[in-house]
Design brief:
Chain lengths: ~300, ~160
């Protein structure tokens, strides 16, 4: 973040036109007509700040919040499907997500503030491309994919291939719309957990966000697999693949949990940051949260209410 | 720049307004309608001073283009009183000393009202979450929490 910019930002924001299309084709048509100078607005909680900061200066905004059918969370063919306009508040209140994707509920529940959660959308949180975004991290661990439409048609992108650089994703909001996020609903032998380290409980950027999806064979006391996502520990959201490999098929033991925590600290790459602390501290926190996360995951699978 | 017509219902009254396409709800409420209770604090969605209730949800009016609110129902702090009598929350805030400089108070009151509308008898944790989007630099929050708790209890006594 450029601090000097935030100190002098203008009171007045500017764009010339504000459109409110009723359908996706109409919205795409408006984007095309403006040849890259118009942008999609849904919740707007990131976009308006980017305009205020001077990072973006769209001539027109295309408000998609009046397009019907994009505001639902549903279960279809074993997958949880989240429409492009679903807000964080809706995610927090969804029984389906609580029962079958707890990590996402947890991530959404501490994003921003109630006000931000009430208007900000899950899609927006992903499209903004921040490496430690509160819902991106659990969605990555949940193996989510997204549907994106543009004038040429629709494509599906796995979240693992979605992030290009900080603030840059596979979606170009001046030409495309993210219409759906989906992932397999977790089964009985699977569980998920999110953890977050921040200076305060509300309205504070995370020092570290972590999400783990865990599957175990409790009878044999073995991990079946783990998917571990975290951020910000690099320019894009990070999957701790080496740690995942270490855990796959390993016996559930104190030693292996500690080893996994150290492995995660090694393979992550946090930098010293004025906002988030020193590299050494952040690495220690990676180990700390991974250890705690795996432990809580195992306890959840054992039926404990943690 | 183009002028656009919007219609919003504010505190029970319908208003038809001409706004610029790039105006924000907070400025329209203050400038066009003279409702100065809604404060523009940080203009970044971080302080909560601009909170209003839009279609049943507390939202930051500094991050909402006025055009987006078109057709919506809005409650601002001015809409809390009834027939010149303070809302029970407002009374409790006064009695408990939950107000110092007053800048955060509208956002606090609306956050609390929205909570009690949906959940008349919240736990302390639920109250804390509900007001977590509004920053107060004077009170240390304790008196605000007490005022909201007391209002909830008074409502219980009256069988609400």
């Amino acid at each position: 973040m450029n601090l000097s910019k935030t100190l002098v930002w203008p009171k007045r924001l500017h764009w010339e036109k504000y459109f409110r299309p009723q359908t996706i084709p109409e919205a795409l048509g408006l984007l095309e007509k403006h040849k890259g100078s118009a942008r999609i607005i849904a919740g707007g909680t990131d976009l308006l700040l980017q305009i205020r900061n001077g990072d973006l200066a769209p001539k027109a905004l295309v408000d998609i919040t009046r397009i019907p059918g994009l505001d639902r969370v549903r279960l279809e063919g074993g997958r949880i499907k989240i429409g492009g306009l679903v807000t964080h508040t809706q995610v927090v209140q969804s029984r389906l997500i609580e029962e079958r994707a707890m990590a996402l509920k947890e991530g959404a529940s501490w994003l921003g503030s109630p006000q931000i959660r009430n208007i900000g959308t899950l899609s927006g949180n992903i499209v903004s491309g921040q490496p430690g975004a509160d819902t991106t991290i659990p969605l990555l661990a949940l193996n989510a994919e997204v549907k994106v439409v543009n004038k040429k048609g629709e494509r599906t992108i796995p979240l693992t291939e979605f992030f290009i650089d900080t603030g840059k994703t596979a979606v170009d909001s001046s030409r495309e719309i993210l219409t759906e996020i989906s992932f397999p609903a977790l089964k009985k032998e699977e569980t998920s957990i999110s953890l977050r380290l921040a200076r305060r409980k509300a309205l504070a950027l995370p020092i570290l966000t972590l999400a783990i999806v865990l599957s175990t064979d409790l009878a044999k006391r073995k991990f079946k697999y783990a998917r571990i996502a975290m951020g910000p520990v690099g320019p894009i959201p990070f999957r701790a693949r080496e740690t995942e490999n270490l855990l796959a098929g390993a016996p559930i033991s104190e030693d292996i949990i500690k080893e996994a925590a150290q492995k995660a600290a090694q393979e992550s790459n946090p930098r010293t940051s004025l906002l988030r602390g020193s590299e050494g501290y952040r690495r220690n926190m990676v180990a700390n949260l991974v250890e705690r996360g795996i432990r809580i995951g195992v306890e959840r699978l054992e039926g404990k209410n943690v | 720049m183009s002028k656009e017509k919007i219609q919003i219902e504010v505190n029970g009254k319908v208003a038809v307004l001409e706004v610029e396409s790039d105006e924000l709800l907070v400025d329209v409420l203050r400038k066009n309608l003279g409702l100065m209770g809604t404060k523009a604090g940080c203009r970044a969605g971080e302080c909560g001073a601009c909170s209003v209730i839009l279609n049943g949800k507390v939202v930051p009016s500094c991050l909402i283009p006025a055009m987006k609110a078109d057709g919506g129902k809005i409650t601002t702090v001015e809409g809390l009183e009834e027939d010149g009598k303070l809302h029970p929350l407002q009374r409790a805030f006064v009695e408990k000393g939950a107000i110092q400089c007053g800048f955060c108070t509208p956002g606090m009151l609306l956050s609390a009202k929205n909570l009690l509308d949906q959940n008349p008898h919240p736990t302390l944790e639920e109250i804390k979450t509900a007001i977590s989007g509004v920053l107060c630099r004077c009170t240390g929050y304790q008196k605000i929490l007490h005022a909201i708790q007391e209002t909830s209890e008074t409502m219980k006594d009256r069988g609400v």
